[in-house]
Amino acid sequence: CCNGSKTESFNEKKPTIKFTKLFINGEFVDSVSGKTFETIDPRNGEVIARVAEGDKEDIDLAVKAARAAFDHGPWPRMSGAERAKIMMKFADLIDQNTEELAALDCVDAGKLFSLGKAIDIPDVANTLRYYAGAADKIHGEVLKMSRPLHAYTLLEPIGVVGHIIPWNFPSTMFFVKASPSLAAGCTMIVKPAEQTPLSALYYAHLAKLAGIPDGVLNVVTGFGPTAGAAISSHMDIDKVSFTGSGEVGRQVMKAAAASNLKPVTLELGGKSPLIIFDDADIELASELAIIGILYNKGEVCVASSRVYVQEGIYDELVKKLVEKAKAWTVGDPFDPQVRQGPQVDKVQFEKVLSYIEHGKREGATLLTGGKAIGDKGYYIEPTIFTDVKDDMLILKDEIFGPVMALMKFKTVEEAIKSANNTTYGLAAGILTKNLDVANTVSRSLKAGTIWINCYFAFDHDCPFGGYKMSGFGKDLGLDGLHKYLQVKSVVTPLYNS
Ligand code: ADP
């Protein structure tokens, strides 16, 4: 099938929506106000379900439960091995519900069902297992003091954590944040994005089945300016971990500072460069560049939205990229033949289209794509612009859609300069067989993750987070665990004379 014609013949897997209420202190409950909101299927704009709309009062209740579970409950007091056992059970339960969970993210976010089932959902179970493996290895160190003092550090859980998560990877982001904080012995309130509340509530149900004690993991669905803001400004939340836009990240940080000065970690947007040198494998390069921008319909904070190609292979690569973009199948994300579903909602859909219009107006050359597909749902054609100048909006802003900006360069120095010419610094890719070039460029780029001859090469053990205005504080790896721990120094005289 070709781009533009939505495939029809496949067996659609419709999820049953079992959980639509807030999960507080181990129970599914209505919001205090009794209000609910619609969650929408981006394939057709229809309502999937109504979900409880949490607000400040509900966050207060969730914080009370999390505080009691932290101060008096078993979770932080258990041995790491006991916590690990429960986390492993949680992971097994996720594995047993892979299809249902992938279907929820498919219908709620327009994510590909086949990839969810094969990759995203099994991967979140493995993220839980990775951190379960760390839970019994959290310890401080003995210090070498300069005076006759015995001193050591304790690593203690930071306390009640608020996780504010985005809609592009509802399952992945839930576990990138919940897993290390569970391992650390923290208790938490998770606020999923209002566009994608469904899988988070299902995870809450599985957490209870796994034996996570009441109050440890609470899920409050609702909107950002109400439920989200109540988390960042709460006086009894000890830390906020946020992933989302830079604009909201600033608000979260301000609210955290203005309330109880809770530490904040921010994983914000990106405008990640992929630099392709003349000696790169051209087939691999075109494949990575296309996947880098079109995977998850470009709703990826590390999308390779700026592709810099050295002049010697530019023409050949452009040809390949356009061919591949035209052959990329857009359609119903339940269809196993489809590689790109709809944008998450109407707002994002219109935002991406307006950036495309901007690009045209600013004088960039549209090589392929540039339009919405069909009259139902939020589908957009894979789009490639070239002749994109530094001051154009489509090169500066994070579009968060299937829109690539393609540029030509001559020298290594020029590539480094252009790639760093952004306020963001989340990730970057370098494709070359020349080790000197790879070493020089990887050390010169101001970005938190550098992929050499690969792209999207994530792993649980690999810390992920931004430089510059892409935020600070790492998710994943042991760095991702340490942000939920605090260091206490204990000092006592060696001799009592
Ligand atoms: P995007 O622009 O990708 O939709 P946002 O930054 O708006 O991302 O949203 C990311 C998360 O932040 C969502 O869970 C959203 O509800 C939440 N959020 C939005 N506004 C606020 C706010 N003022 N305070 C706290 N959280 C917010």
TrEMBL record:
The keyword Oxidoreductase applies. One of its GO terms (molecular function) is aldehyde dehydrogenase (NAD+) activity. The active site is at residue 267. It catalyses: octanal + NADP(+) + H2O = octanoate + NADPH + 2 H(+); an aldehyde + NAD(+) + H2O = a carboxylate + NADH + 2 H(+). The keyword NAD applies. It holds the Pfam family Aldedh. Coiled coil: none annotated. Its EC number is 1.2.1.3. GO terms for cellular component: mitochondrial matrix. It is found in: Mitochondrion matrix. Its main location: mitochondrion. Residues 28-490 form the Aldehyde dehydrogenase domain. PANTHER family: ALDEHYDE DEHYDROGENASE-RELATED (PTHR11699). This is Aldehyde dehydrogenase 1. It comes from Trema orientale.
